[in-house]
């Protein structure tokens, strides 16, 4: 099968906010869609009941999910905590494990959590200008470790796909909490 011949395009990426215009998809993830991700179930339930806050949004200009294409999207994670644990993305492996990803930090501060199926783990601090490489076979999740929205650009292969199942059942080996001394990664 040959790759779809697309017309070239250029988008406007706001380097200060992460807004991508135009975009064809915007996914907003509210806290209720992150069930089981945070350690403190009672704090989670109370925050969902009190208004179910927006945790993060992803904007993307869609291209076909096929080999050879590159998917570009931005993610903006709001500042906030659930029982002291900092707001984060769901996190995923790629369904096609043989695909990597590149992240570029745009705004705020974050931490990229990585983990393999064997339990190896790594944590990479991110800020504006950080280019972080997610090698194939590493699950990845981002955490907002600052006081303002944390925004970053992601580019990954069209055939990668998202596998959320393993993370939903096993989680990551590390959790990141906000403390008076700053963000603290606990394993
Ligand atoms: C980045 C990319 C996307 C991903 C998004 C949110 O922008 O890795 O593929 O969808 O972060 O992460 P998640 O899908 O784990 O919620
Ligand atoms: Zn990914």
Task: Describe the model.
- This protein is mostly beta strands and 187 residues long.
- The chain has a single domain, classed as Sandwich (Jelly Rolls).
- Helix content is 8%, strand content 44%.
- It is built from 2 helices and 17 strands.
- It has helices at 41-49, 165-170; strands at 12-13, 20-21, 25-30, 54-60, 70-77, 81-82, 85-86, 93-94, 101-107, 109-115, 121-127, 131-134, 139-144, 150-157, 162-163, 175-179, 182-186.
- The strands form 6 sheets. Strands 3-4-5-14-9-12 form a 6-stranded antiparallel beta sheet, with no helix packed on it. The chain has a 3-stranded antiparallel beta sheet with strand order 11-10-13, with no helix packed on it. Strands 1-2 form a two-stranded antiparallel sheet.
- β6 and β7 form a beta hairpin.
- The longest helix is centred in the first third of the chain and has 9 residues, at 41-49.
- The chain starts with 11 loop residues before the first strand and ends with a strand.
- Zinc ion binds next to loops.
Sheet-strand content, in percent, reads: 35-45%
Helix content: under 10%
Poorly predicted tracts of residues: none
The CATH topology corresponds to: Jelly Rolls
- Compute the number of helices: 2
* Average of the residue pLDDT scores: 98
Identify the bound ligands: 6-O-phosphono-alpha-D-mannopyranose, zinc ion
CA-atom Rg in angstroms:
16 Å
Q: How many domains, in number, for the residues?
A: 1
With strands numbered from the N-terminus, the spatial order across the biggest sheet is 3-4-5-14-9-12
Structural class: mainly beta
Report, as a whole number of angstroms, the end-to-end distance: 44 Å
